[in-house]
Structures are given as structure tokens and as C-alpha cells.
Amino acid sequence: MQYRIDPRSGARLSALGYGCMRFPLTALGRIDADKAEALVLDAVGKGVNYFDTAYLYRGSEEVLGAIIEKNGLRGSVHIATKLPHGSCTSFEDFDRFLGIQLDRLRTDRIDYYLVHNIMSFEQWERLVDLGIERWISEKKRSGAIERIGFSFHGSQDDFMRMLDAYDWDFCQIQYNYLNENYQAGRAGLEAAAERGLPVIVMEPLLGGKLAGGLPRDAVREFEKVDPSASPAAWALAWVWSHPQVTVLLSGMNDLDQLAENVAVAERALPGSMSEADHAAVAAAVGIISESYRVPCTGCNYCMPCPKGINIPALFSAYNTSFVTGRFAGMYQYVVASGAMGDNSRLASDCISCGACVKKCPQRIDVPASLSEVRRRLQPFFLPPALEVVKRVMR
Ligand code: SF4
Ligand code: SF4
Q: Ligand 1 centroid vs 30 CA: distance in angstroms?
């Protein structure tokens, strides 16, 4: 395993961190604790020592805490988790959530604690008004929080303001070759590093989009340079080639994926990409950008929708329709919307209530984008045609 030093604390962190948001699920949609345990143990065995979870990742803190306790791993891993600041309306709430998280994680301290998903500077100002700075100082003094940071999905300007708004120990940003100038972006990454902060990178594969389902022409650009490396390996290596990146988080949910990521982590050192590599990435970016119409990462933050619409799945179908063809996208849309069942949730069921919009870290205008989905994947004849098919099948 490649290790990078947290420039602030001197901690030796594995360049590959485990993103526990995407632990494998059972058929009922709960975390498969046995599979998650096998993955965590394999990761630790391969040298991964940074595990990232959050209060809002359903079941993730509990499962991770149980695995760490059962296997006596607390001394060998760093735990990162996050405060659901949107649910904090008083000073006491900060303590309440942290207490729940310490119980779930079966520990008395959080190594890396983040204010979760800051999307605007005003959100931080609201927390300051509630007394978060005093609270952080108290918790760091007591040892319940070792290092404090924030995860960020807002504008670059707001990221720069956040960097200077508090004496942070670290920060976490979305960064990948398709988002080099999006959100904090490269300028934010460099600014954080200049201030001596370790930078944790999330979404290196943009919710898996840079791993599977790339346009064939984009994959060909990579294959021209290195036919043996997968698109995922290219995307991870690109992030690790930045010396300012301390840890890259990957939400690995099978052992093969974990093994591949570890293998890439071992060789993807800072500055390890050649000019030819960078040219291949630039060419692929040009091709991919033309194909991905809605920049949804599948994070699910916008869910649940009061109308039951599976927002990320519909966007995935829409993007697919530009990459692998309209028919493939339409088929995916029919499956994702449950259009063949009695309880379908179509793009046209959106009532534009806006509940999802303020939760989306990618700032997608969900209702407007769903209108696009409807126009492309739900032609007027689709619902009656499906009704006929259903009747015949019955
Ligand atoms: S705007 Fe549409 S998609 Fe978003 S939560 Fe409301 S009904 Fe659901
Ligand atoms: S629409 Fe936004 S919040 Fe919802 S899954 Fe996509 S990126 Fe996440």
C-alpha cells in the first residue's frame, strides 16, 4: 500500500481510503454485514487504514463500528465520520449527534470528524451562530474529536471562504478528471494544500461513471496508451498523481474491485502520469463530456422523493441513452421507474416540489432535468404501450 503523510498531524494514511457509503446491500436493501466485514478485513489486510462513513449513510456507522470492535481493529484504523449539520438547530444538537455516532461506532473518539456536505458559506455561518466553533474546541479538548474538517460540494468561491473561515485540520472535496474545474476543483485542491491541509478526495469515479459505461471512443483513448489498465484504474491514477491529494476514497463493494484499487494505489505515486497519459485523459474528457448530460453521481442525497421517483436511477437511464443508445436508455428507464409494475414512478410524476433540489450536492435542477428525461425516454405512447404489454402478460 502507498501511504501519504497528513501534513497537519503527521499521521500516516493509506492513499486508498474506504468509502463506507456504498457497502454491499442485501436484497432487502440493508447493508450486508457479512460481506461488509469480509471487505473491511481484506482492506485492512492490504494496508487500508482510513475508513469514511457518516451519520446519514443508513446503517453504515453501526456496521463499521461492529466490525472494528469484533476484530479488534480500533488501534489500526482511522475513523472519519460526519455531522449532519442540516439537522442541527441548537448547540445541544451537535453533542446529541456526536454521542449517537460514538455509540454506533463503538469508540470514544473520532479521528477525522467532518461537517458534512457544506454547499454554501451561509450554511457555515448558520452553524457559527449556533456556537459550533466553541463546541469543536470543547470536543477537541476532551479528545472526542481528534481532527476537524468539512466535506464540500459548493462553489469554488465558497470553498476558498471556508478554508479561511476556521482553523481546519483537513478537508474533503469531490475531485476527478471530469470535475477538474468543478466545485472546489484543482484551484481549491491547491489552495488547501498551500494552507498545509490534508485533502481527502471523494467521488474519484464520479459515482462509478468513470469506471463502467464510458463511451467506447473514450475507452479507446485509454487503450491506445495502456490496453491493460481499466477505465477505473485510469481515473484513480489521475487523482493520485496529484501530490496535494492525501487520501482517495473509494466505495468498494466487492473483493475484485478492492484488489484492483489496491494494485493501482501501489503504483500511482504523485506525478506518476506521463504526458501521453495526460493527453489520453484530455481526449477522453472531451468525448465523455459530450455524452453525460446530467452530472448525477448517484449519491442518493436527494432521496426519498415524496412522489417515490427514483431520481438517480432515472438520470442514469437518461445518461445511458446518450452513451449506449436510446433503446438501451429506454429499457433502463422502464426498469428504474417500475413502469412494468402496478406502482410506477415516472419522470412525469414529478410535481416540482423542489425538496430534492436543495439536497443535491451537484446542484442539479432535478425537476427540469426530469422533464428532459421524460421528453427523451417517455414518449407519449410509452405508458399506453406498457399497459397493453402488461395486460397481455397477465
Ligand atoms: S421536485 Fe420532483 S423529483 Fe424532486 S422531490 Fe419533488 S416530486 Fe420528487
Ligand atoms: S440528483 Fe443530485 S442528490 Fe440526487 S443522486 Fe444525483 S447527484 Fe445525488
A: 24
- In short, whether 366's Cβ falls inside 6 Å of ligand 2 is yes
Q: What is the largest CA-CA distance in the chain?
A: 68
User: In degrees, to the nearest 5, what angle opens at C-alpha 237 toward C-alphas 11 and 232?
Assistant: 120
| 131-to-8, 89, 158 alpha-carbon distances in Å | 25, 11, 20
- The response to whether residue 298 sits with its C-beta less than 6 Å from ligand 2 reads yes
Q: Is the CB of 276 under 6 A from ligand 1?
A: no
Residue identifier of the C-alpha nearest atom 2 of ligand 2? 360
At 375, which amino acid appears?
Answer: R
Q: Is the CB of 299 inside a 6 Å radius of any atom of ligand 2? A: yes
Task: Quickly count: other Cβ atoms within 10 Å of residue 95's Cβ.
Answer: 15
Instruction: Name the residue type at position 253.
Output: N
Cβ–Cβ under 8 Å, residues 307 and 359: no
Residue with CA nearest ligand 2 atom 4: 302
Dist. CA 361 → ligand 2 center (Å): 7
Domains of the chain: residue spans and CATH: 3-290 (3.20.20.100), 311-393 (no CATH)
CA angle 242, 246, 252 (to 5 degrees): 100
Q: How many Cβ atoms from other residues are within 10 Å of residue 264's Cβ?
A: 23
How many angstroms separate the alpha carbon of residue 310 from the centre of ligand 1? 10
Which atom of ligand 1 lies closest to the CA of 370?
3
Per-residue pLDDT of the chain (394 residues; tens, 9 = 90+): 999 999 999 999 999 999 999 899 998 889 999 999 999 999 999 999 999 999 999 999 999 999 999 999 999 999 999 999 989 999 999 999 999 999 999 999 999 999 998 888 889 999 999 999 999 999 999 999 999 999 998 778 889 999 999 999 999 999 999 888 777 889 999 999 999 999 999 999 988 888 887 888 999 999 999 999 999 999 999 999 999 999 999 999 899 999 999 999 999 999 999 999 999 999 998 888 777 789 887 778 898 899 989 898 899 889 878 876 788 788 888 877 877 777 788 999 999 999 999 889 888 999 999 999 999 999 888 878 877 876 776 5
Q: What's the 22 CA to ligand 1 centre distance in angstroms?
A: 23
Note the ligand closest to the C-alpha atom of 356.
Answer: 1
Ligand 1 centroid to 159 CA: how many Å? 28
